[in-house]
Amino acid sequence: MTEAMNVEIELKFIATPEVAEQLSQRLAPWPNVHTAAQKLTNIYYETADNTLRSYDIGLRIRGYGDRYEMTLKTAGKTVGGLHQRPEFNVDLKAAELDIHLLPAEVWPEGCDLQALQAALSPVFSTHFTREKWVVTYRSSEIEVALDQGEVKAGELSEPLYEIELELKSGSREDLLSFAQELTAEGGLRLGSLSKAARGYHLAKGNPDRQIVPLGILKVAPKASVEQGMSDAFTFALRHWQANEEVWLHGDRKAQKTVLEAIELLRQIFALFGGLVPRKASTALRAGLTELEEQLATPRLDAKKVCFSPLYLNTQLALTRWIATAEWRSFVTDKTQTKLNGSFKRFADIMLGRTGAELKEAFEHVQHGGEYQDKYVRLVRQLLLFHVLSGAYPEEAVAEYLSGWQTLQQAIIQKQDAYIESTRKHAMDQPTFWLNGTQKPSVND
Question: For the CYTH domain, which residue ranges apply (predicted)?
Answer without folding.
Answer: 6-206
